[in-house]
Structure formats: structure tokens, C-alpha cells
């Protein structure tokens, strides 16, 4: 009997040939029945999708159907996997279905949908165009081709925007580094709104600056300090334009000509170049991640020390001070030497606002 034949051997008798034909017919019938049963499970809804996949898989294992039928079953299984969101499995099935029958339009469509679901736009476009060559008037393929084109256009636009952001950030970092400025881990972001320096078309740095009034625990944010602006003249300009430079009202101790500006030495942890890159790109939609480039810390840095700002110097000269690590953006303390708080401030025995 054919059942006892060795694997790979040819039938020798008419009886063996008849047995093999009967076995093949049984397997073919079983495969077709499983295919139809799978189709019925699909119609019964989501609760039966796993049963449909099982039936299609068992039908394929019979290995009793021709390439065209196998292609149809694979495309059907791809359809169910698409309904379940199993895009990788759907794509594999659809690709195999196309290989077995290049004219299987449903396989092309399902390969397109699976690739699109995986955001593989180049592959999705390839499968869609191949399907349209077979059926140029297919409405489903035309519709998803429009969706692919739209997403590709959005991606190109986003890539251009990201490239511009990266280029601008690199230029900014280059200028900061070339001008001998040391950037530290950002601080006081709740006061600055996470603002960052900006480089204009004339290669001039514009800095947001935070002024802290330590004695009364308040602050001011000056959103745009130009690189060549003196600290004193900038504050005077803000006062003339109605921007507060002191929360003390009419207190003569805090008239603009009285207070002094200070910065704290090595306030922030110095960042390495990669972390500076990451910080400047923060919020730009890029995929940059921190490089762990902090090259200093606040542990054991010695007693707190404040340096008085020479307001006749430009902001750039002030920021170049060898003991100043800029905590993201410049932070200056506004303190009057005539205030009773001045001695306490110089000791560092107080909490910053």
C-alpha cells in the first residue's frame, strides 16, 4: 500500500498510484474545507479570528493545493492578521502570496496595507504600484496610494524641518564653544520657560537672562539680551521701557543705581559637547538623546562664592569669566550692598528663589 512507501520513492504498482491519488484527493478536499471554514469564521467576527487563522494554517499544511489556491489562502490569512493589527505576520503572508501568484490583487493590497501599517512607506509604495500594474483601475489601491503619497510628503517636510533644526543647533553650539563660553546643566527652567539662546542671521547671540532678587525671593526674566549689550545699560533700558528691574518699588536701597549684579561660581554641572547638542535640540522633534556628557559635578566644589559683575563690560565678556558655568541661560543675582541681607547673601547661607 502507498501508506507504507518510503518517503521520496515513486509508486511502482497501479494500486500504489491509486492510493496516492486517493490520499491527495482527501488532502485537497480537507484543505478546501478548512479554507471555507476559515472564511466562515472571519464572517462571524473578531472573536473567531484566531479560529480562522488556525483553519488557514491547517489548510496550508496539507500541501495539497496548487500555487494559486495557496496564494489565496495566504492572502486570506494576511487579511485576518491585518484585522488583528498583526502587520508583520500579514506582510509575510502577503509577500508569500504574491510570490506564488503575482496576479493576486488582494495579496498586493494586503501587502500594501501591512507595510503602510508598519510605516514602511517605500515598501508600501512598491506593492501598491505593482498591484496597480495588474489592475490600473483598482479603487482600493488608488486610495491607499494617495495616503502613502501624503505620508511620504509629510515625512519629507518633517525631515527638512529637523535638518534645519539640527543645522541651527550645530551653528549655535559652535558659536558658543568658539566664544569660550561654558554651558552647564540647565537650572531655573521653571522661571525661564526652558528658553534657550538664539543665533540670528548676523551671527549675533541673543540670550534670555534671569535676574534673581534673593532677599525677597522673586525674579525677572529678560527674554532677549543681545551679545554686545552691557548689563547695566540693558537693565536701564528695561527700566525705561517699563520692565521691572526690582520688586522693591520706591525703596531707595533698590534704586537702579544702587544694586549690584552677581553670579555664582560654578553653579551648574559643566556639560560636554554632546549634551549641549541635546539641550539645544530639545523640543525640535529630533531623536537626540543625552550622551551623559556631564564633565563636572556640584559635589566638593568648595564654599559658595559670588562674583560681582562689572556692568561696564559686555554680556559676552561677563559670560567668559573662567569661574562662570552658565546654567543653560545666564542667571544673575540682584543685591544691594546697602541692604541688611547683603552679608547673609555673601555667606551663601540662604535658599535661592
Automatic annotation (TrEMBL):
Highest rank taxon of the organism: Eukaryota
GO cellular component: cytosol; nucleus
InterPro entries: TPR-like_helical_dom_sf, TPR_rpt
GO molecular function: Hsp70 protein binding; Hsp90 protein binding
Gene Ontology biological process terms from the UniProt entry: protein folding
Identification of the protein by name: Tetratricopeptide repeat protein 4
Organism, as annotated: Stephania cephalantha
Source species taxonomy: Eukaryota, Viridiplantae, Streptophyta, Embryophyta, Tracheophyta
Amino acid at each position: 500500500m502507498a501508506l507504507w512507501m518510503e518517503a521520496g520513492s515513486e509508486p511502482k504498482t497501479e494500486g500504489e498510484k491509486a492510493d496516492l491519488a486517493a490520499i491527495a484527493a482527501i488532502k485537497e478536499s480537507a484543505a478546501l474545507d478548512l479554507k471555507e471554514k476559515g472564511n466562515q469564521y472571519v464572517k462571524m467576527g473578531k472573536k473567531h479570528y484566531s479560529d480562522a487563522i488556525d483553519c488557514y494554517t491547517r489548510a496550508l499544511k496539507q500541501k495539497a493545493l496548487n500555487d494559486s489556491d495557496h496564494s489565496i489562502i495566504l492572502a486570506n490569512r494576511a487579511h485576518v492578521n491585518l484585522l488583528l493589527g498583526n502587520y508583520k505576520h500579514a506582510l509575510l503572508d502577503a509577500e508569500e502570496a504574491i510570490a506564488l501568484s503575482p496576479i493576486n490583487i488582494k495579496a498586493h493590497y494586503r501587502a500594501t496595507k501591512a507595510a503602510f501599517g508598519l510605516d514602511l512607506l517605500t515598501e508600501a509604495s512598491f506593492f501598491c504600484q505593482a498591484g496597480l500594474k495588474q489592475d490600473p483601475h483598482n479603487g482600493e489601491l488608488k486610495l491607499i496610494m494617495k495616503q502613502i503619497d501624503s505620508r511620504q510628503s509629510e515625512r519629507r517636510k518633517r525631515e527638512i524641518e529637523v535638518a534645519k533644526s539640527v543645522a541651527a543647533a550645530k551653528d549655535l553650539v559652535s558659536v558658543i564653544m568658539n566664544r569660550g563660553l561654558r554651558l552647564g546643566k540647565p537650572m531655573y527652567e521653571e522661571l525661564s520657560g526652558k528658553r534657550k539662546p538664539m543665533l540670528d542671521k548676523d551671527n549675533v547671540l541673543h540670550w534670555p537672562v534671569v535676574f534673581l532678587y534673593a532677599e525677597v525671593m522673586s525674579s525677572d526674566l529678560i527674554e532677549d539680551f543681545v551679545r554686545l549689550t552691557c548689563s547695566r545699560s540693558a537693565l536701564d533700558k528695561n527700566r525705561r521701557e517699563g520692565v521691572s528691574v526690582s520688586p522693591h518699588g520706591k525703596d531707595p536701597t533698590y534704586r537702579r543705581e544702587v544694586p549690584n549684579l552677581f553670579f555664582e561660581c560654578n553653579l551648574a554641572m559643566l556639560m560636554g559637547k554632546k549634551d549641549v547638542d541635546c539641550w539645544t535640540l530639545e523640543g525640535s522633534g529630533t531623536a537626540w538623546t543625552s550622551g551623559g556628557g556631564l564633565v563636572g559635578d556640584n559635589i566638593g566644589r568648595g564654599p559658595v562664592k559670588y562674583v560681582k559683575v562689572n556692568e561696564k563690560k559686555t554680556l559676552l565678556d561677563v559670560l567668559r569669566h573662567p569661574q562662570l558655568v552658565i546654567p543653560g541661560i545666564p542667571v544673575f543675582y540682584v543685591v544691594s550692598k546697602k541692604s541688611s541681607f547683603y552679608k547673609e547673601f555673601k555667606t551663601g547661607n540662604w535658599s535661592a528663589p
